[in-house]
Design a protein that fits this description.
Layout lengths: L18 H11 L4 H20 L7 H7 L4 H14 L5 H13 L8 H14 L13 H12 L1 H19 L5 H8 L7 E7 L7 H20 L11 E4 L1 H4 L8 H21 L3 E4 L7 H12 L10 E6 L5 H15 L3 E6 L4 H11 L10 H16 L5 E6 L3 H11 L6 E5 L4 H10 L5 E7 L6 H12 L4 H6 L5 H4 L3 H5 L32 H13 L13 H20 L2 H17 L1 H12 L3 H27 L2 E2 L6 E9 L2 E5 L7 H12 L3 E5 L5 H14 L6 E3 L4 H9 L3 E7 L2 H13 L7 E4 L5 E4 L5 H13 L11 E5 H16 L19 H17 L1 E5 L11 E4 L14 E7 L4 H10 L2 E2 L1 E5 L3 H10 L4 E4 L16 E2 L17 E9 L7 H5 L3
Parallel strand pairs: 1-2, 1-8, 2-3, 3-4, 4-5, 5-6, 6-7, 7-8, 11-12, 11-14, 12-13, 14-15, 16-17, 16-22, 17-20, 19-20, 22-23
Antiparallel strand pairs: 9-10, 10-25, 18-19, 21-24
The chain binds flavin-adenine dinucleotide.
């Protein structure tokens, strides 16, 4: 495979550096002369006044309001409904959806805050100059009253009209031809366009080809009508790399470089032939390095020489923005080309914050205070202006202060333009056009059908509705102009204030109780490279040290544990907790070692192995924190005077911990640390497939300070497990594995004489996901593929049975199958691998037999190809009835069943009938459907509109009911107590002759 290479060394910069140092530099550089500041004030004030004077922000809305006899308030409420309606594909469900929302309940969200937010968002999106809907009012109430007045059919028609208006407001045309003809009358030397083809990123090869074709034909159409003025005074197109490749992700770099770069070169060449401005949009931070690799490699193609139209967007909310500008300048110089650079603030801020928190990063790749973004924007603008004419800066903003500042920094020189989004910033740029006819601006004009509008619209609504957004504040007459003129440097003040006080660092997410486990971002090449080399450097462990235990060994381990119990149970809870916290620290220090083990012994991919180490560390810290609370102090109980009553929790004795191979580190350590924290001595028996990981985990605990006498490891298969369970000194059993073995253990325990022994069992499930017609196919495809195939489907939480509403089933299944086809199956130590091997030959044989049977009994939608070895490729089968799947199939096999919208009840019944209740997924935008399903089904972990695996300790405590387990949930607040026995101590404090405390009390 020939991999195109960038002409200069790849971009590299710290991914999420500390804000303080950056702020110090930016604050220093932000100082301007008083005369300059005064000019900025003057220009910005004039622009703000123009924005506020504009009373016709949205042609059409007035007509609609008149036509349907609506007040503005009602019109806005309809807009909120319309926003949600855009997601619904078919007319029948759309009607159902409207009825549902009109008939009952708050139709956007249950919390008043978020519905209020959306109301405001829509209001601002429409450029309304006041918040028409008052605090306390809800869109639902408004629509409810309206329905009474006008009747549901009129409201339905008005909602559709509102939907069209929203579409028209933010989208220039449904086709490129329509968009071009709408743009044409406005195009002039100083009003330019950059067209954008709407849509979610590609999930399948077909999607990518479709987007490629749509870009290609748009370039042709734009080129045909581009006129004969030279660049930069020509129209352009904006492309998203994620639309051109189904796996546009850092770990798939080699593939992306070899497949995507040629596509990008093709499109760029075509744009060159019309001398257009061709801009690569900026996407999520983890894709930045990869984007720059792709861009540099494409730009380096000699066929693009002599053309100045290639460009890219750079996000100023990213801490690496200035470094990216330097890199782009270096690139342009090395190729002796000119480039166009669009400076934006960034559109994915909320996503970035969430992702960094989920990944447990050391910091955020973006700033956490809006003023820091603004400050950085101005600094980057200055940097770009200094690089003219090699770089042609394009300043994309709707912020009047930002515009005025840039005008000042440009100091009357030309060689740059402003940019705005279609439907935003009209008044500002109209005013600017009057005052400064020499300054050009370009409109970014989305093109696409209303169905594809959703993701784009949500971004714009968020952008316009956010309290910090300039557009929102400028539209709010109650905000004084002076407040809008406040400089970002003044808002920040000193470098120490650079971080948002209420957004904790990802590592402090659970502070003060515990630290979040440390992760890394695979989109940061340096971090990924370091991890991969560290893992590769780990020597293969010696298997010789593993000795299978005999029954005598098992008995001896229990006897020794019994002897060790006394001292350990008397060790203060605080000390026990410290030992667990130390274990977590050691685990993180040695994560490459454990990752290597998980890969070699457990066949885990890098992503899975890292997540597992993190989960194990989380278990240690979570149980330590919980344990300190539960066992630290005895709990005083209320009672009569003259008596003290306290409740204490104590360890039970020797706990037997039997764990599975699919999470050989996390579940193993989760069980053991919970039992230890509760004051028990432990005899642990890991799965026979993964003995080394368990041995290393036990040695880690011993190093951290767990006495050898309190924790014993017994290796072996189920027979040794049975010996341990049967032992008369086993005071409790914690087990994770199959339902059959859990039952056998239960019987064994019940048959024993002596004390009745508690069993904590976590078993499997036939986990289902329900997808209705309101769900977004791309999101469903991502979540289904992750839930069904990640870890080769070897998670108890994995999705086995997908129920899809038949109206959308064909499209959904096609996209899921297409996305599954893009997964790489093979060597788990290769970071590009998505699916590793299954655990052993037996597992493979069982899965192959099931697949062979399904090929006979079901409709095959996808049958992947696996390399030689213990690999099983993903398969997707459609069943005519859910009952065809009678048992848990522990591998990458997805079963799909279609259902009719009015038969959801049957679906729920069939899920109930299975008797399992572990995980459940729901993809629906109809809150009532979601609520009904949650109300009806008792699954232990329910996930709405996301994937259904990867429960996080202390966040999504994990475990099911029915055939899926006994509870309590692992990683939850009720878990530790189950490992204990309770004792109350009552002391008659008046025994010594009287109740002195009572007598001493004053009135
Ligand atoms: C022509 C054009 C093209 C665009 N292309 C892209 C693109 O390729 N990629 C892309 O990501 N975006 C793109 N955008 C969207 C762009 O990021 C937003 O429109 C822009 O951020 C709005 O900035 P503003 O100056 O108008 O508004 P302002 O209200 O002044 O600033 C809003 C910015 O502040 C950020 N912000 C809000 N709160 C915080 C906080 N607490 N901490 C840090 N930052 C915060 C927001 O994320 C947003 O970036 C484009 C916009 C335009 C006009």
């Amino acid at each position: 495979m020939l991999i195109p290479q960038p002409p200069i060394p790849p971009f590299s910069a710290p991914y999420a550096p500390d804000d303080r140092a950056l702020a110090a530099r930016l604050l220093q550089a932000a100082r301007l002369e008083p005369a300059q500041e005064a000019r900025i004030d003057r220009v910005a004030t004039m622009l703000i006044e123009a924005i506020r004077a504009n009373d016709d922000p949205l042609g059409g809305v007035e007509d609609m309001l008149r036509e349907f006899a609506l007040s503005t308030k009602e019109g806005l409420a309809l807009m909120v409904l319309a926003e949600a309606l855009l997601r619904v594909p078919d007319a029948r469900t759309a009607d159902q959806f409207i009825e549902d929302k009109l008939a009952q309940g708050d139709f956007v969200h249950h919390e008043t805050r978020s519905s209020a937010f959306l109301v405001n968002a829509s209001a601002w999106a429409l450029g309304m100059s006041a918040r028409v809907i008052q605090p306390g009012e809800t869109p639902q109430g408004t629509i409810g009253r309206l329905t009474k007045r006008l009747g549901a059919p009129t409201v339905r028609a008005a909602t559709r009209q509102a939907m069209r208006l929203m579409g028209n407001h933010f989208v220039l045309g449904e086709t490129i031809e329509a968009a071009l003809s709408r743009a044409q009358p406005h195009s002039s030397r100083h009003q330019r366009y950059s067209f954008d083809m709407l849509g979610e990123g590609a999930r399948t090869a077909d999607d990518a080809a479709r987007y490629f074709n749509s870009y290609a034909s748009a370039i042709e159409a734009i080129g045909r009508t581009a006129g004969d003025r030279p660049l930069p005074d020509r129209p352009g197109i904006s492309v998203k790399l994620s639309a051109l490749h189904p796996r546009f992700e850092a770990v798939s770099r080699a593939r992306v470089m070899s497949e995507l770069v040629p596509r990008l070169i093709d499109l760029a060449r075509q744009a060159k032939s019309h001398d257009l401005n061709f801009t690569v949009d900026a996407e999520e931070a983890d894709r930045l390095e990869l984007s720059l690799d792709v861009i540099a490699a494409a730009l380096g193609d000699s066929s693009l020489a002599g053309w100045d139209g290639f460009g890219l967007a750079i996000q100023a909310y990213q801490k690496r923005a200035s470094g990216v500008i330097e890199y782009v300048d270096r690139l342009a110089r090395s190729l002796d080309r000119k480039m166009m650079v669009r400076l934006v603030k960034g559109a994915y801020w909320d996503t970035e914050i969430k992702r960094a928190q989920e990944r447990g990063l050391d910091g955020y790749p973006v700033f956490t205070r809006k003023a820091m973004t603004d400050l950085n924007y101005v600094a980057c603008a200055q940097q770009l202006l200094g690089l003219r004419p090699r770089i042609f800066p394009q300043f994309a903003t709707h912020n009047a202060l930002t515009v005025a500042t840039i005008l000042e920094l440009a100091d009357g020189e030309s060689g740059f333009e402003f940019q705005r989004l279609h439907g935003m910033g009209d008044a500002l740029y109209a005013q600017l056009g009057e005052d400064r006819p020499d300054i050009a601006f370009r409109t970014y004009a989305p093109v696409g059908s209303h169905r594809d509008l959703l993701a784009y619209l949500v971004r714009r609504l968020l952008e316009n509705g956010a309290n910090s957004s300039f557009v929102a504040l400028a539209a709010d007459e109650t905000v004084p102009v002076a407040a809008l003129l406040r400089r970002p440097a003044d808002v920040i003040g000193t470098a120490g204030n650079a971080r948002h006080p209420n957004i904790p660092l990802p590592r402090d997410l659970f502070s003060p109780q515990r630290e979040n486990s440390r992760g890394i971002e695979f989109g940061e090449r340096a971090a990924l490279g370091q991890l991969v080399s560290a893992v590769a450097a780990e020597a293969a462990p010696a298997t010789a040290s593993i000795v299978e235990a005999t029954s005598a060994d098992a008995n001896a381990a229990i006897a020794a544990a019994r002897a060790g119990f006394k001292a350990w149970s008397r060790t203060p809870a605080d000390t026990r907790a410290k030992i667990l916290a130390r274990t977590a620290d050691l685990l993180e220090q040695r994560s490459p070692h454990f990752i290597a083990l998980l890969q070699r012994e457990g066949g885990k991919t890098l992503d899975d192995a890292l997540s597992e180490v993190r989960e194990a560390a989380d278990f240690c810290r979570y149980y330590a924190a919980q344990g300190k609370k539960l066992f630290g102090e005895s709990e005083a109980m209320p009672g009569p005077t003259g008596e003290s009553n306290v409740l204490v929790l104590r360890g039970r004795g020797v706990f037997i911990a039997i764990s599975p191979w699919n999470f050989p580190l996390a579940i193993f350590l989760g069980q053991v640390t919970a039992a230890l924290m509760a004051g028990n001595a432990v005899v642990a028996k890991p799965a026979e497939q993964t003995p080394l990981i368990a041995a290393e985990a036990v040695s880690l605990l011993h190093q951290a300070g767990v006495p050898a006498s309190a924790l014993h490891l017994v290796q072996g298969d189920g027979r040794i497990g049975a010996d341990l369970v049967a032992h008369r000194d086993a005071a409790g059993v914690v087990f994770t594995g199959s339902t059959e073995v859990a039952r056998a253990i239960n019987r064994q325990l019940a048959a024993k004489d002596g004390p009745i022994v508690p069993l904590i069992a976590e078993t499997g499930g036939i986990n289902a996901m329900i997808v209705d017609a309101t769900a977004l196919p791309e999101q469903v495809a991502d979540d289904v593929v992750t839930s069904a195939f990640r870890s080769a489907g070897q998670r108890c939480s994995a999705l086995r049975l997908l129920f899809v509403q038949d109206d959308v089933a064909d499209r959904m299944i096609e996209m899921i199958a297409g996305a599954a086809r893009e997964l790489k199956i093979g060597d788990p130590s290769d970071p590009a691998t998505h699916i590793g091997p299954v655990i052993d030959m037996d597992a493979k044989a069982r899965l192959d037999a099931h697949i062979a049977r399904m090929k006979q009994e079901a409709r095959v939608h996808f049958a992947g190809a696996a390399p030689a070895g213990n690999f099983v490729a993903p398969h997707i089968f459609e069943l005519s009835d859910a009952g065809q799947l009678t048992e848990e199939v522990f591998g990458p096999v997805l079963h799909v069943v279609r259902y009719r919208a009015n038969r959801l009840d049957q679906v729920l019944r069939s899920i109930e009938r299975s008797g399992y209740g572990l995980t459940l997924g729901i993809h629906s935008r109809i809150d009532d459907t979601v609520d009904d399903v949650i109300d009806r089904l008792q699954a232990g972990n329910i996930y709405v509109n996301r994937n259904m695996i990867g429960a996080v300790v202390g966040v999504q405590p994990f475990g099911g009911h029915g055939l899926s387990g006994t509870g309590p949930k692992a990683g939850g607040p009720h878990y530790l107590a189950r490992f204990t026995t309770e004792q109350t101590v009552t002391v008659n404090t008046a025994a010594a002759g009287g109740n002195a405390a009572l007598m001493a009390g004053e009135e």
